[in-house]
């Protein structure tokens, strides 16, 4: 599909201080919250669900997770989803982004056997959302690969591009009459790291500079397969939209000589997925192709570590996106230089990233509060890819817990203001936003130590009670008034 050419214009010449209406959300703009299956559901072996790679990691190598915890029970949303919908309703959320656990639907990963209780669970959730006027958005894959598919090599094995299409067909068939917003993958840039180190994210395979590129390649092929499948078999009847969720951090050059370094950061982490799908060439960013090919040759590899697309694949794939999902949290500083083992993606990118100590921190080592980076990133996406419709599918802040989460409140209000500037002042086509996250949940290798929820969850209480934090109250006010409250405008 083609997007409108960008029309950057300035709506107002006065600053925002004199133009508070600039902090109103457009009428059709969607506001809501997000979660992911492994992080909230629990019910890890309930009703026929198969194991996935996070079950394996947390059970076999609990020491990988800071507090040695797992998602076995998590928020118990498998049993308490009605509670979650109540929270969303109370907030005035118009949409809810959640993900489906592949192994709950297809315990072995394959579509020859569909686990009916898994279908029932998501049907109940989707119906309950719709009964409450909340639009469901489904992420098909948020990092919980069925273990049986990992046993076959996981994402570096290209056969997964076909298996994930088969999985997607089961989802479209069962839920597509009611679900109109789909994301194929969440943050492939992050889960490709699962193939970069034997102490990292699941499945913790140590093949840096190889396993990550193979993963990216399969994911891009899989995404296109799923998009075309929808187009062929479902779209006419179901009338939904299919996108992907990509994360990127704003990269602020250390000096004026480091602009290219930051550009490469962007291409190696965002362009690697966006370019094949949206660019004219339909290929990886040229700077990435060149650098990985050269490094591979120098390192003695006969075949480049970055796989190549066939012309047929390029044609098949180009334009397979109805909207860009964008997850934004933070920024980094970047400078020219080579860091990282040989081979590695970091080394290939030929840039060094670091954190600016002047930027306020959070509970997460990687998360600094840089709201203006959000506006910059949104502008960058718009400029580079012809202003596609953007759904911001994650944005949030971590602390160590507590109901008076003042810093989270400020994080949200400042980021929403920057997003509104991008919309109203810069003409960026942002059409919706979900806060990460609805509830405190299992934060991957950080376990339950870092909290991202706007509702607090007591993980020591078997009934997992949810309590609104200050941030839930402020987001409720924003969702219901559809503006940033005056007290946050200065
Ligand atoms: C998202 O990833 C996830 O989609 C979501 O599941 C998660 O709960 C949420 O954010 C909060 O973390 O240690 O410097 O190598 C956010 C992007 C990318 C952030 C990888 C952490 C590791 C940074 N993540 N990153 S570093």
Automatic annotation (TrEMBL):
Signal peptide span: 1-17
Pfam family, one: Glyco_hydro_1
Keyword set includes Glycoprotein: yes
The UniProt record lists the keyword Lipid metabolism: no
SUPFAM superfamilies: (Trans)glycosidases (SSF51445)
Keyword terms, alphabetized: Glycoprotein, Glycosidase, Hydrolase, Signal
Principal EC category: hydrolase
Family matches, as InterPro entries: GH, Glyco_hydro_1, Glyco_hydro_1_AS
EC number: 3.2.1.21
GO biological process, one term: carbohydrate metabolic process
UniProt-annotated catalytic positions: 394
Gene Ontology molecular function: any one: beta-glucosidase activity
PROSITE patterns documented for this protein: GLYCOSYL_HYDROL_F1_1
Assembly: Homodimer.
Protein family (similarity comment): Belongs to the glycosyl hydrolase 1 family.
Protein name, per record: beta-glucosidase
Species whose genome carries this gene: Macrotermes carbonarius
């Amino acid at each position: 599909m083609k997007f409108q050419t960008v029309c950057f214009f300035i709506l107002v010449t006065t600053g925002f201080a004199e133009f508070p209406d600039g902090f109103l959300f457009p009428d059709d703009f969607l506001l809501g919250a997000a979660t992911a299956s492994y992080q909230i559901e629990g019910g890890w072996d309930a009703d026929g669900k198969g194991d996935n790679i996070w079950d394996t990691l947390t059970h076999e190598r609990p020491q990988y997770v800071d507090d040695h915890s797992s998602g076995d029970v998590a928020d118990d949303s498998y049993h308490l989803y009605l509670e979650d919908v109540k929270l969303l309703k109370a907030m005035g959320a118009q949409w809810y982004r959640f993900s489906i656990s592949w192994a709950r639907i297809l315990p072995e990963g394959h579509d020859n056997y569909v686990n009916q209780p898994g279908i029932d669970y998501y049907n109940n959730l989707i119906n309950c959302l719709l009964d409450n006027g909340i639009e469901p958005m489904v992420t098909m894959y948020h990092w919980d690969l069925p273990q049986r598919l990992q046993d076959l090599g996981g994402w570096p094995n290209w056969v997964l591009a076909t298996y994930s299409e088969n999985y997607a067909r089961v989802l479209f068939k069962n839920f597509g009459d009611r679900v109109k917003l789909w994301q194929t993958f969440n943050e492939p840039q992050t889960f490709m790291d699962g193939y970069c180190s034997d102490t990292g994210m699941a499945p913790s395979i140590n093949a840096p500079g190889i396993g990550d590129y193979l993963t990216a390649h399969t994911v891009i092929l899989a995404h296109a397969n799923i998009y075309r499948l929808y187009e062929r078999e479902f779209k006419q009847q179901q009338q939904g939209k299919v996108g992907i969720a990509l994360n990127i951090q704003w990269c602020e050059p250390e000096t004026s000589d480091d602009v290219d370094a930051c550009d490469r950061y962007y291409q190696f982490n965002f362009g690697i997925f966006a370019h094949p799908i949206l660019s004219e060439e339909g290929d990886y960013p040229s700077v990435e192709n060149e650098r990985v090919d050269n490094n591979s040759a120098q390192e003695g590899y006969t075949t480049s570590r970055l796989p190549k697309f066939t012309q047929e694949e390029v044609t098949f794939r180009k334009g397979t996106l109805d909207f860009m999902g964008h997850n934004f949290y933070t920024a980094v500083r970047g400078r020219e230089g080579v860091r990282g083992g040989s081979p590695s993606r970091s080394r290939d990118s030929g840039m060094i990233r670091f954190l600016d100590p002047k930027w306020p921190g959070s509970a997460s080592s990687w998360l600094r509060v840089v709201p203006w980076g959000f506006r910059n990133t949104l502008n960058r996406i718009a400029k580079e890819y012809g202003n596609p419709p953007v759904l911001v599918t994650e944005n949030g802040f971590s602390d160590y817990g507590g109901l008076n989460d003042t810093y989270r409140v400020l994080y949200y209000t400042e980021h929403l203001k920057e997003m509104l500037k991008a919309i109203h002042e810069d003409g960026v086509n942002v059409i919706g936003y979900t806060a990460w996250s609805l509830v405190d949940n299992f934060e991957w290798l950080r376990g339950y130590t870092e909290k991202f929820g706007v509702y607090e969850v007591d993980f020591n209480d078997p009934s997992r009670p949810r309590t609104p934090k200050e941030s839930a109250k402020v987001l409720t006010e924003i969702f219901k008034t559809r503006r940033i409250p005056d007290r946050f405008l200065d």
